[in-house]
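Quick sanity check, DET1- and DDB1-associated protein 1:
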Amino acid sequence: MDSTMEDPNSQIKTHNATMARMYRRHVQSQKRQRSSEVSSSKTTKRTPTPDPIT
């Protein structure tokens, strides 16, 4: 008796858990990037004449 074959719900649960873990990791890295971006933008805003970096 294969539980994964019998109960598709359990498969979905494990899949969701994996996706949630990946998503959390992705969000964490994005937060890190965003915070560094915010701090850099704050410093550029503080300067009266920020160098136009494009």
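Posting the structure with no commentary besides this: The chain has a mean pLDDT of 75.
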